């Protein structure tokens, strides 16, 4: 799906920056020139950086052993450096898209870093995480590559409605930062992240889920289906077994896509690639032409640190 997207043929006037929780597929950020600022993850007192010197297998081993893991947002200086480098490469504006401000201080760090930027920076709070954020960044990249993508329902890769060579679409000027940022906001606002975990303890300890909701799952032996809605983690439903939770997760995704129409889907996991691949295959078969290829990937280290072992998540985003 994402491999067929064509990056701009020349340096873009609008540069894109995001953070490592976007869970972008390998190689996509490099191919499109998207700068990814890593979040920090501290394992047994040693700080590492997601996507730089931290492997998912290392994190899974620490979490499974019950050892302490903490995360930290990038400092403003990291964003200021990324913005300065983008400007030095010729960018006249920057769009910086990040995970929900209710889940991390990353957006605030980006806003502070933008104060020192040599060019205007549009900081976008995606109010989401994982590919809920990642698909918003992809949508922004599409607009940078082809301004036709800012129009709903237009595919910038295969051509817009009635958009052949020499049409008005072909003569559109490059999109500006405000247009690119608005496209990212629209896609992020229309996305949903639904997930299940083995234990709610990690979410409770990290402050991402209220103690009452976490206690309910523990005392009653229920497995809540959780979701990121409006930038926050919420309990959507409660079921008795993991198998039932997985089946209900897939049912919710199918209903979500049916309500939205054409869309994009991603499956994230921590340490269970076979299960995630099976879920992705079932969703692809059930949805058919309603979605592009389902992206299956390991969850980002920061997401995994707060969700814990057994994480299985599905993201739905508008096209």
TrEMBL record:
Keyword Secreted: no
Keyword Endoplasmic reticulum included in the entry's annotation: no
Pfam family, one: DegV
Molecular function GO terms recorded: lipid binding
PROSITE patterns named among the record's database cross-references: DEGV
Keywords: Lipid-binding
Protein's name according to its UniProt entry: DegV family protein
